[in-house]
Amino acid sequence: MNLSNHLFFTTSCEQALEFYTECGFGSVVSILRHGENGMPVRTESMRGKTMHAQFEGPGVRFFASDNDDAEPMRGSSMIFMGTSNNPLSLWERAIIA
To answer: What's the rounded Cα separation, in Å, for the pair 28 and 21?
Structure first.
């Protein structure tokens, strides 16, 4: 079984995905936007923002979206999960980048 995280942003999902791509972690596989191609829009401020995105790279897969009512993380509730023969390789790449 593989588990995948889902990251919630208020309005900066696409910028975060671009950053992860620039770091060499992978790339966006698919992206749906609020208000495009018949997708619903709850508020006009969300039009064009990320409704659902899938990001993949070596040992990395997660989903992400913009939600204007997303709650900020509290405390140390963030978990980065990945699989690799070398568990530090992803962190080393992040530090070097």
So the answer is: 8
